Amino acid sequence: MTTTFIDTHAHLDGEEFQDDLPEVIARAKAAGVEKIFVPAIDLVHLPDLMNVCRKYPDTLHPMIGLHPEEVRADWKDVLKNMKQHLLDNLAGTNDEPRCIAVGEVGLDYYWSREYEHEQLEAFEEQVKWAVECQLPLMIHCRKAQNEMVKLLRKYEKDLPGGVFHCFTGNDKEAAELLSFQRFVLGIGGVLTFKSSNLREMLPTHVPLNRIVLETDSPYMAPTPNRGKRNESAFVALVLKQLAQSYQVSEEEIASQTNANVQRVFGVGVMDKAV
Description:
Layout: E1 5-7, H1 21-31, E2 33-38, H2 46-55, E3 60-62, H3 75-91, E4 102-108, H4 116-133, E5 137-142, H5 145-153, E6 162-164, H6 171-178, E7 183-187, H7 198-205, E8 211-213, H8 235-246, H9 250-265
Parallel strand pairs: 1-2, 2-3, 4-5, 5-6, 6-7, 7-8
């Protein structure tokens, strides 16, 4: 039986894939990727995201959220529209594939703190959506873990769970994030980078039942494709490296990460669109 698995984070609605998306999906399927989760980043591109997911209803699953780097002074109006879109989606009134998570949301102070306060408020508002709708969170966090953790603690008991996307931290940072019992770490191409400490750190500090696979396509392509456009087929390289690091079979990595996805998102690897 062919091993199948899930890419929990890929921006396949981006312009980087507009010329060859069918081939990208075909290569992903050939590599063993059965499902791909597609996060939103803003309101403007939400129709594009939904259109892409509508074309591949058994494979692509959308999220709705405002990426922290897209937060501007008008964030309240943007989120008002996004929330209504989310509620209509969940009610089934807008003929869209069902949204599986609130994301990609979070905090990012890597480049600038110009909208620091607005990012915090926008993130908290979307955390409230996750509680209200009982949807998992897909969280982006750079240079802001202390602020993120402090905010999430306020809602910890009521949140259904989620993913700390693109985890690249150390053992102490992992332990702090894993203290949120219903959350998992998203592991992607950085695992394969020569400079990464994840290959040694993860097996000794992070149990396999707290990891999901991701690419963050078109970004962060794993070795040996580093520097090229990332795509979902390359998540197989992440799986392979995890198997080597944990000293288990690739089948075990696929089985465990699929179970983790089912637990967090309620989506099984072989589920079909309703």
